[in-house]
Write a structure and sequence with these properties.
11 strands, elongated
């Protein structure tokens, strides 16, 4: 009886001995940290595969804002308005012809904007003209041979002209902007600008008589004449002109503009140029570019702003879909496929043949070969019956990569970027492609021009009606997305998961090292050290060394900007930046020696055993990399993703394990390569590779950008100066370089190995020799 009762009690204890949910979760977390290396590797692979599966997760685009009411109103911009646009364009061409053949771009721009201002004033609108100073950086002033205070105003200033169409039946508290760029270098010249001016005047004239206006509308003429040798060309000039205009619009009038010309023809007229006309709180903005004038066979919609900022997706989808409605036979899209650039669809003759490029650059050829290789692999794995699906998958992956790369660069693709900086949803619509001398003038005659003016005017009216119907800013759709094609996208819920997986792969190892110690990774090789004795981390010197690394990276970045500002050549700027980085590496080594040489290490105090310094430094480096890349994710995911993928293997592979000394004694080995490898200091090779990771990444970026890797630092500083900051520059010098420098230092510096680990390694080596 006693035995049976004991068995029953044992069974009851076994049944009731199942862990509670809380204990099960804690045990699972413990197993994760116990096997953190394997878990980290799995998470990294899952993150990479997750990005490769983006085309499978993409959804069809849609317009979530019902208040747009697209297609619910009759289009009023018809043949009469198109004829008016054509007549305005002819008048503008006459103004250009009156200047003579020797007129330069500045004279032509002034003539066109004066003509537009006079016509707008004749319509009885509020008109304002402004001239804004554009501050050159120190390099620009040196290259122009100027001092800071006496820059030539014709070079260091840009002009704007705008008019406001008031909605008679509304309060005028909200407004919408339509902007036109004039003077750009990548157009068919003054004739294209005359067509843009003619269309703008006809559209404003039509709005002035429209009875459906519920908001004020602003037509803004932006100065897109290139600013000397600044990168970005006409886009750079238009963005800075729009920036200055918006600063004055929102109240910063003292610093924004230059004194008006006393000889201004508009002075004293209604809409006095000295008074800045406003239209209430601006809601949306559309920038219209007409590089081919009244010849539109393609429409490229460009949403990318500063640092990858994007407009609300409803506005982007609206621009694409309404452009397709206005130009049903034209190629309309975001121009995401480098194998099918949108400009090749522009007609050059009556037959409508495509414009053929002069050969194919290296990048496009490389992308074509890579795409073909991936398609062959997909067909081999899935069969020929899935060839079309494989081709579509590879194409979507290619287009998503192009879209992400544009955002990661952080360089605006149009003047709309200035409006997004002021929290306005905006996009640029590039109507047509410059055709130059290849254009068949007879094909684009007066009748064709009038019909094109009608189509463009109807597109502008549809955009205006949609914004006019809104009673608040766009908020229903998404601001964070990745386009895989013109008609498919990934929201933040889909695209951020792979980044979270890779960041978690770094963070898990950092937490495991902080809570469990080296756990066999401290140079012992087999993990048979004192597992029972808990060792503590000496955080103070590790944190000081990490702070020194980030300060050194910031110093290298500042030095690079100084070299750029000194007007040095691109190669000299890059070379001196590399020398500064080498000096920073040497300085970090000295800092590490000073922190750990005098009594530092795991056994500096016999009472409290400590982890080897390199383990603590690895933990700090991992935590810093995970924190910084996660922070960048919230501002520019396309930039954070490749940065995290590149840094994760570097930081996770930090180790002081080195068996080369043991292999040098293995003279009886029957494998010659084992004996040869024994003479190679693997830690030195690994730390060198870690330190050279920024160089490898710079070379890769230069290959993609089609620039010289010997000028990488110059171009990075150039973009930082030209676009007033950006995330790429600080990420390079405050995230990538410190992480690689700390990883290289923790892998190679002997002072970070620790005395106990060295003693154990020597003891094992002696025991193996005795065997």
């Amino acid at each position: 009886g006693g035995c049976s009762s004991t068995k029953v009690i044992g069974r009851a204890q076994a049944v009731s001995g199942a862990m509670a949910p809380r204990d099960a979760v804690i045990a699972a977390i413990g197993r994760v940290f116990r096997h953190h290396r394997n878990v980290s590797a799995v998470l990294y692979v899952v993150g990479v595969l997750g990005v490769l599966s983006y085309p499978l997760l993409a959804r069809r685009v849609f317009i979530d804002e019902n208040a747009f009411l697209h297609g619910h109103g009759a289009i009023g911009f018809g043949a009469d308005e198109a004829l008016s646009a054509h007549e305005y364009a002819l008048k503008a061409e006459g103004v250009i012809d009156a200047l003579g053949a020797d007129a330069d771009g500045n004279a032509i721009y002034d003539a066109l904007t004066n003509f537009a201002a006079n016509e707008l004033d004749a319509l009885g609108l509020d008109v304002s003209k402004r001239e804004y100073p554009i501050e050159f950086d120190r390099r620009g002033r040196r290259r122009l041979g100027e001092n800071a205070g006496d820059a030539d105003s014709s070079v260091a200033s840009r002009k704007t002209t705008h008019a406001v169409v008031r909605a008679v039946k509304s309060s005028g508290r909200e407004g919408v902007v339509f902007a036109t760029t004039i003077g750009a270098s990548d157009t068919d010249g003054p004739i294209a600008d005359a067509a843009a001016i003619g269309l703008g005047l006809a559209f404003v004239k039509y709005l002035a008589t429209a009875k459906w206006l519920a908001k004020d509308f602003v037509w803004l003429v932006l100065d897109a004449r290139p600013l000397g040798s600044n990168p970005g060309g006409s886009t750079h000039a238009a963005v800075h002109a729009a920036d200055a205009w918006l600063r004055e619009y929102y109240g910063d009038e003292t610093k924004a503009r230059l004194p008006l010309d006393k000889k201004s023809k508009n002075k004293g007229a209604r809409g006095d140029a000295s008074a800045f006309a406003r239209a209430g709180a601006l809601q949306q903005a559309y920038v219209i570019e007409m590089p081919a004038g009244a010849a539109v066979d393609v429409v490229a919609v460009r949403p990318e702003g500063r640092n990858g900022a994007l407009p609300n997706q409803d506005l982007l989808n609206t621009a694409v879909q309404l452009s397709r409605r206005a130009f049903p036979r034209a190629k309309v899209g975001l121009d995401l496929d480098p194998l099918d650039p949108i400009e090749t669809r522009a007609r050059v003759g009556g037959a409508g043949e495509a414009k053929v490029r002069e050969g194919e650059n290296k990048n496009v050829a490389l992308i074509r070969r890579l795409s073909s290789f991936l398609e062959r692999i997909g067909v081999f794995c899935l069969g020929k019956s899935r060839a079309f699906a494989v081709r579509q998958f590879v194409g979507d992956l290619r287009r998503a990569s192009v879209f992400a790369w544009r955002c990661a660069r952080g360089v605006p693709t149009g003047a709309h970027a200035a409006f997004k900086s002021f929290a306005l949803d905006a996009a640029t619509l590039r109507l047509g492609a410059p055709l130059g001398s290849a254009r068949d003038k007879a094909h684009f005659g007066p009748t064709t021009n009038r019909e094109t003016f009608r189509k463009i005017g109807s597109l502008l009216e549809m955009l205006a009606r949609g914004s006019n119907n809104l009673i608040e800013q766009l908020h229903h759709s998404m601001f964070y997305y990745v386009m895989t094609s013109d008609d498919a996208f990934l929201s933040i819920a889909e695209y951020v998961a792979p980044q979270a997986a890779v960041v978690a792969a770094i963070a898990i190892v950092a937490i495991a090292l902080a809570t469990r110690g080296g756990d066999g990774d401290d140079g012992n090789g087999d993990g048979d050290g004192e597992q029972g004795a808990r060792r503590e981390h000496d955080w103070a010197p590790a944190l000081a060394l990490a702070a020194a690394a980030h300060a050194a990276g910031a110093g290298v970045g500042y030095a690079s900007l100084c070299f750029y500002d000194a007007a040095l050549s691109p190669v000299a700027t890059t070379g001196l930046t590399v020398l500064s980085a080498l000096a920073a590496h040497a300085l970090l080594a000295k800092v590490a020696f000073s922190l750990y040489a005098d009594g530092g290490g795991p056994n500096s105090t016999p009472v409290v055993p400590r982890e080897p310094p390199w383990v603590t430094l690895k933990c700090v480096a991992l935590a810093s990399a995970a924190t910084s890349t996660a922070a960048v994710t919230f501002f520019n995911f396309p930039l954070a993703w490749p940065t995290t993928v590149a840094l994760a293997p570097v930081c996770l592979s930090v180790s002081q394990r080195d068996r080369s000394e043991e292999r040098r004694d293995d003279t009886k080995s029957k494998r010659p390569w084992r004996a040869l490898a024994g003479w190679v200091d693997r830690r030195t090779v690994k730390s060198t590779a870690m330190a050279l990771t920024p160089v490898f990444l710079a070379s890769l970026v230069s290959l993609i950008e089609e620039t010289s890797p010997f000028a990488f630092a110059h171009h990075l500083a150039e973009n930082a100066r030209a676009w007033r900051g950006g995330f790429a520059f600080p990420v390079a010098y405050a995230v990538v370089w410190p992480a690689c420098a700390l990883s290289a230092l923790a892998t190679r510096a002997d002072v970070l190995r620790g005395t106990r680990g060295a003693g154990q390694r020597e003891a094992r080596a002696e025991s193996k020799k005795s065997r």
